[in-house]
Amino acid sequence: MATEETVQLGEEHAPKQASIDAFDSVLTSLKEELRKLRHDHDKHEPEYFRAVKDVSDSDLVSFSSSDLESVRVANSAYGLHLFGKVKIPTLDNAYIHVRIFGSAKDGTDGSSADEREYKLHSIHTEEVVKDDGDHVYRAIFGKNDSLEWFDT
User: Fold this and answer.
1) What are phi and psi of 5, to 5 degrees?
2) Is 85 within 8 Å of 73 (Cβ atoms)?
3) Is 96 exposed, middle or buried (0-12, 13-18, 19+ CB in 10 A)?
4) Domain map of the chain by residue range?
5) Higher pLDDT, 74 or 7
6) DSSP letter for each residue of 96-111
7) Beta partners for residue 119, in sequence order
8) Is the pLDDT of residue 81 over 90?
């Protein structure tokens, strides 16, 4: 299994065409999963999506590949790990962080973009435990929040 300790994640940069194509290939599933994630968290811990509580589902998922502002990429024996920072267009400082996994298509070695298929791995949700034991939850990040390795 690829982890932050076993895979070298590249520097954050503007997306190149291959990253945009990978993002476009998972766009429908990303939007469906984001809606589902929001509704699931609103039942149990609404703080995750508090920053967008007044935003409709349709506005929340109104992004496209042109809103993919930056990416970080890592290669492992398993495939390509693409982390992306996506702007929520209806808000000034609201982003989601997504992770996409690219693997070789059957019968190929996956060495070229045409030989890879992509799937949404996860949308980042963060739980931070403060020194006083209080928990802080979020799924919406700001422009200045670093795009780091995440599993959830």
Assistant:
1) -80, -25
2) no
3) buried
4) 17-138
5) 74
6) EEEEEEEEEPTTS---
7) 101
8) yes
Q: What is the pLDDT of residue 4?
A: 78
- Give the bridge partners for 104, in sequence order: 116
- Report the length, in residues, of the chain: 152
Q: What is the pLDDT of residue 139?
A: 97
Q: Among residues 95, 123, 117, 93, which one has the least CA distance to residue 30? A: 123
CB 2 within 8 A of CB 74: yes
C-alpha–C-alpha distance, residues 4 and 83, integer Å: 12
Which ranges constitute the DSSP H helices of the chain? Answer: 17-44, 57-60
- Asked whether 51 and 145 are in contact (CB, 8 A), the reply is no
CA 116, CA 77: separation in Å to the nearest integer? 14
- The predicted model scores a pTM of 0.92
